[in-house]
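Researcher: Structure for this, please.
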Amino acid sequence: MSMNREARAQYLIKKLGTLYPNPEPPLLHDDPFTLLVSVLLSAQTTDARVNIVTPALFKKAHSPQKMAKLSVEEILSFIKTCGLAPTKAKNIKKLSQILVEKHHGKVPKSFEALEALPGVGHKTASVVMSQAFGVPSFPVDTHIHRLAKRWKLTQGKNVKQTEEDLKKIFPVETWNKIHLQIIFYGREHCSARGCDGTRCMICSYFNQH
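Model: Predicted structure, token format:
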């Protein structure tokens, strides 16, 4: 008899906890604002690429107040190698202005307020709530969505359904750590091309149980 979802989740908590006991957020940042901008930039762009472009951008404008004073063209000049750069430059300027005007220059600590910002979707808001403020969140990106389906933790047709399913089977106190651990494992051991669902240690274990 194959393992149920809860048993698989418990196995993952132990296994990934051994492999990645203290996972650090992969995007370089110093505070909630620089994290917010970095996560926004990471859409359709690798974290490695974002980490290459953000140091110079943040040296120029490290706060919403300073970022809001830059022109869209100036912001774009720093991030032009990121995917969807023109749209992202406009959104970064706009959200910086909104943070100054509506939130006293601070990143708000609520999903509703974050998701109201230009270019900030639920996944971006979840990363900020989790990594900047420590609020239990389960950001689901394409890596997590793919692995959750591969590991039979969900039949989710989209990331929203996958997030709901994962929140049900993983204890809330594990969410902030486990989502990072799954991302790291997917990159290192169970990539879309590197594993066909049978090769890596976790896939092979689940296939045997």
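Researcher: Any notable elements?
Model: The longest helix spans residues 85-102. The chain has twelve helices and no strands.
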